[in-house]
Amino acid sequence: MESIKGxxxxxxxxxxxxxxxxxxxxxxxxxxxxxxxxNADTLKSLAAELNLPASQWMCAELxxxxxxxxxxxxxxxxxxxxxxxxxxxxxxxIRPVEQLSAADLLQSLQSNLVAPFLLVKSFLPAMKExxxxxxxxxxxVLGKVPMAGAAAYCASKYGLVGMMQSIREEIKRTEIRVTNxxxxxxxxSFWDTIDLRVQRDKMIQAEEAARAIWFLCQQPASGVVSExxxxxxxxxxx
Length: 238
What we know:
By secondary structure, the chain is an alpha/beta fold. The chain has one domain (8-230): NAD(P)-binding Rossmann-like Domain (Rossmann fold), CATH 3.40.50.
């Protein structure tokens, strides 16, 4: 296992439950973190808890090309390179297709597919320069197995999987690794606005999902974990 101590890591979605717990684990392991998220107050509070200076966090909308360019500029004004890019950001719109609007579909694609594209496009070149790095995305199990009411969400997550598989082919002669983690139901704020009867007490805890990401950041230099599946006992879709 590789140590994360001293690793330069960009963590997106840091204001979500999984992202915040991941940030705390990585900071405890000695990683050098740069955090981004959509909620400025939550991000500021998390950065203060982790003793991160203002230069190492930034509130950003990652589907906005201009904001991602600003994020890249701010990141590289602090760090000389990027060892790990972890994308935990995204949105979940779950409702029957006749209740979906075109705006719902576009929002899903913008947040869950376009944003990761812009991130990889911006930060992959720095990894290519040293021919080394790790990119972790979270398609979730709905990036592998469809679910009724998840047409927009599945479209975005299936697209993310396909995009990263294609990018993996482009960089296969380097030591840049791509890992997808397929999480099942996680008890997080994801479900707060979704009108479904779910048993959140039987879901994966956000802390355990974060621990899986923390583990993936320590992959051995001689190999790669291309995929990890973590799902609740009572709802194993894969």
